[in-house]
Amino acid sequence: MATAMFTASADYLSSYGPLQQTLKAARVAMWTMHWQMRGLQAAVPSVSDRELTGRFAEGSGVNGADFGESFVRRDWADIDAELTRILLVDVIAHYEGFCESLGDAVVKHQRQIKGPDVAQSDAPTSAELAQVLEGQLKADRKATRKLSDQLQFPTEAGSDKGISAALIALRAAGLERTWRTTIGTRLRQQGPVTGFLDARMLVYRAFKEARNAIAHKGNRAGEQVVSSYTAYTMVQPADLGMQVMPELPSTSLGERINLTWYGVIGLADMLRRTVKAVDGALADTEIATLELASRFRQDASLHIVDLPGKIRRDKAGNWLVADSDADRSKAVRAGLFHLLADLELSKVEPVVTPVLRSKGVLLAAPNRAQRKRAAQ
Predict the structure, then answer these.
(1) Which of 37, 135, 224, 352 could potentially form a cystine with 71 if both were Cys, beta carbons 3.0 to 4.6 Å apart?
(2) Whole-number Å distance between alpha carbons of 299 and 356
(3) Backbone angles phi, psi at 194, to 5 degrees
(4) Does 176 fall in a domain?
(5) Three-state DSSP state, 237
(6) 121 within domain boundaries
(7) Cβ atoms of residues 247 and 263 within 8 Å
(8) Cα separation of 252 and 103, whole Å?
(9) What's the number of CA atoms in the CB half-sphere (13 Å) around residue 91?
(10) What string of DSSP letters covers 98-142?
(11) Burial, 326: exposed, middle or buried (Cβ in 10 Å; 0-12, 13-18, 19+)?
(12) In the prediction, which pLDDT does 117 show?
């Protein structure tokens, strides 16, 4: 199971593997079809396109295919380029979806913290209340779009926009003491360093502008493609925290955009790391606490992170992890008790506690007998 604090991150990470494997399998299938059909035509030159298509497409439910044109008379480079463009569109859309989903969650929890824009002493009419709520919805949608956009741009020197600036602002808005001693710290430790994010967004912008040109400008490079590619050339693998740079071939103004399969696969891996880094950067914030409460409403047995080793409390009452215990499963079970005990002390206790108690989950710190039963 993917390790993440936010639902947006968990959804992205859980779908990343199956999606990548499906696309890779599709490429292998296209490669196999290409050579099998060429081999069949070489062995039986008289075979018609209709016979060729029927032999391979029967039972698939696909109608109107022309495998002779698609596979026999096309070079593999052309087929691969088409597949790579499809892959790029999917990879960009996947990350865009994460940004929008995370932005929506963050803004929702910010609204919970702030409260409604109506003073408790006021007694608004239903029409006035509807107007206030409509204004809140518009403001929240605008804030969601803004944060989603910021997560897709680098932060330039002296700017308050871009991915780093957005995360800094969200962390400055309020850290949750509980998470600095429990799961939030663990997620931040296991996540990538957030210092790579701005360089990664320079690479992302180059690929995204290429995607935009493919989708909207006939696969021809415009000025935005050229300028973003220039910025891309200034980035080195070490700036991304990676061994290999996602490859993007050079393109001049007005030329057709060229991509490589492994370059787009590298981009996908870079964005996977970025999602984990963003999730980790926010894991010890007040917003993350509310997000976890929201997730527990849906599943009280939610598994967020493995806590290896024995878990104990220090004299100050903080939960600590000692990595001396080799039995991870026992540590995870024990860790659940400690996590829930801290949740009970947090400000989301009125929300989380009834849900967990209704599921029969023990919330108090376990005594010796309870710890023994949990480890069984």
Answers:
(1) 37
(2) 9
(3) -75, -10
(4) no
(5) helix
(6) no
(7) yes
(8) 35
(9) 29
(10) HHHHHHHHHHHHHHHHH--SS-TT----HHHHHHHHHHHHHHHHH
(11) exposed
(12) 58
pLDDT at residue 65, as a whole number: 77
CA nearest neighbour of 213 among 88, 95, 96: 88
Contact 366, 340 (CB under 8 A): no
CA distance 163 to 143: 14
pLDDT of residue 9: 92
What total number of domains does the chain contain? 1
Q: If we measure between CA atoms, which residue out of 91, 89, 30 comes closest to residue 65?
A: 30
Range of the domain at 360: 306-375
Strands 319-322 and 310-313: antiparallel
CA–CA dist 245, 240 (Å, integer): 8
Tell me, what amino acid is at 21?
A: Q
What is the gyration radius of the CA atoms in the chain, in angstroms?
26
To 5 degrees, how large is the angle CA 327–CA 292–CA 104? 135
Tokens 């490669």 belong to 31
The reported pLDDT for the residue numbered 187 is: 47
Asked if 221 and 251 count as a contact pair (C-beta separation under 8 A), the reply is yes
DSSP summary character for residue 196: G
Question: Is residue 29 in some structural domain?
Answer: no
Q: How many CB atoms lie within 10 A of CB 142?
A: 11
pLDDT computed for residue 232 by the predictor: 95
In a domain, 364, yes or no: yes
Helix, coil or strand: residue 152: coil
Per-residue pLDDT, 128: 64
How many angstroms separate the CA atoms of 245 and 239, rounded?
A: 9
Q: How many CB atoms lie within 10 A of CB 359?
A: 11
